[in-house]
Design brief:
single chain; 412 residues; alpha/beta; Urease, subunit C, domain 1; TIM Barrel; 13 helices; globular; binds zinc ion
Length: 412
């Protein structure tokens, strides 16, 4: 099947401005032409589906590199510990469809106990249910006594497959995730702002040697490591140990930012999660301990964001959602917050397309509109480079194509 998009303004993920009056041709799953229509040499279009995109934008499918695909439909803050695994899988199916319909053709899910995320990925890959390309981590890898456990009373049984002590334990925990189908390893390197644990969010919860073992084991199997870490100390250890992306990193200072930039360690700021603590009415939605910890952290992130840009950190978009009140695909808010913090709209688009694909290890396949790439594309009514907020509104996403197949279209 051949699909020809004509007269599009193409944001390709590489060039900082849209390429006007451009044709993009998709043959089966792959982009085969990007350029002026008159130069294609195509005489007979009778066998092709031609879609005129005059006045519209064609851009790479969006990516959210930090989601929890099996959560977010209920307001229970410890849902992942109290809901059954099958119920989480059902949420995952619902969320997968919602992400795809909102223009997200790739997501990375970072943490689900009992592996419902892996099941949802398999179901999408087998064509049983609609959904984006999913990279899934399985269970989070963490040290025994992690703040993550602070969500539960000590005597309550806590998921064990990712929990470890010592270097051998770290290797075992990583191997267990890979055995269960993990595409990426989610490491909890520091405490949690969300749990009322005795360990604090900025505590580093394992030794650097344990982190090195996690990274070595993951990399040997070709898996990247995404580490939850907040403080300069924790992020420094992760960076030196070989972690590929720092998730949150809200408290990093200039020295840490410089080290990450030098090492090429990516940052996924997940501003949406922290922004929520500063909003009016936060007192009704979050417990006091969480606000007491989270608000000063959010303020550090807002203050230091310009330094991320100054040092040229590799930044990818991650919503850390969905959550009640922020539905799958409202990840556009994350882009808007990054723009408000100092990014250009083009940098925010890159963080959600081309840069995201690099962070996920998929840059040869998706993330840009180039000949030879898989056709993960969206049509936007309007210009996201002029107004990034339009990507939050599903009404503006008029067509979604994944792997060359049109999965939703309001253009017919
Ligand atoms: Zn998360």
């Amino acid at each position: 099947m051949q699909v020809i998009f004509t007269n599009a303004c193409v944001i390709d993920g590489i060039s900082p401005t849209g390429r006007k009056n451009t044709a993009v041709i998709v043959d089966d799953a792959t982009i085969s032409w990007v350029g002026p229509m008159e130069q294609t040499g195509l005489a007979d279009k009778s066998q092709s589906k031609v879609i005129d995109l005059a006045g519209k934008t064609l851009m790479p499918g969006l990516m959210d590199v930090h989601v929890h695909i099996c959560q977010g439909t209920t307001p229970n803050p410890i849902a992942e510990y109290t809901e059954t695994v099958p119920f989480q899988a059902i949420q995952g199916v619902t969320n997968a469809s919602a992400f795809l319909n909102a223009g997200f053709t790739t997501v990375r899910s970072l943490g689900a106990f009992g592996y419902p995320d892996i099941s949802v990925k398999e179901a999408v890959n087998q064509g049983l249910v609609p959904g984006p390309r999913i990279l899934a981590s399985g269970e989070m890898v963490m040290a025994h006594g992690s703040g993550e456990q602070g969500f539960m009373r000590p005597e309550v049984s806590f998921p064990k497959s990712g929990r470890f002590t010592g270097i051998e334990g770290a290797r075992h925990a990583v191997r267990t995730q890979i055995y269960n189908g993990a595409d990426v390893i989610k490491l909890i390197a520091s405490g949690r702002v969300g749990s009322n644990a005795y360990t604090l969010p900025w505590d580093t919860e394992m030794t650097r040697d344990e982190m090195v073992a996690v990274c070595d084991e993951a990399h040997r199997f070709g898996r990247k490591v995404a580490a939850h870490a907040y403080s300069p100390d924790a992020v420094t250890d992760c960076t030196i140990a070989g972690v590929d992306s720092i998730e949150h990193g809200v408290m990093i200072d200039e020295t840490t930012i410089e080290l990450m930039a030098k090492n090429g360690t990516a940052l996924v700021p997940t501003m949406t999660a922290f922004h929520n603590y500063l909003q009016p009415g936060a007192e009704e939605r979050f417990p006091a301990y969480r606000l007491a910890r989270g608000r000063p952290m959010a303020e550090i992130q807002q203050k230091n964001f310009s330094k991320y840009l100054e040092y040229g950190l590799t930044i990818a978009t991650g919503s850390d959602g969905p959550r009640p009140g922020s539905h799958p695909g409202t990840t556009g808010l994350e882009m808007q917050l990054m723009v408000e913090a100092g990014m250009t709209t083009f940098q925010a688009v890159q963080a959600t397309t081309s840069t995201a694909s690099k962070v996920l290890g998929l840059k040869d396949k998706v993330g840009t509109i180039e000949v030879g790439k898989l056709a993960d594309l969206i049509v936007v009514d309007g210009d996201p480079l002029a107004d990034i907020s339009i990507l939050q509104n599903k009404e503006h996403i008029q067509l979604v194509m994944k792997n060359g197949s049109i999965v939703r279209s309001g253009l017919d």
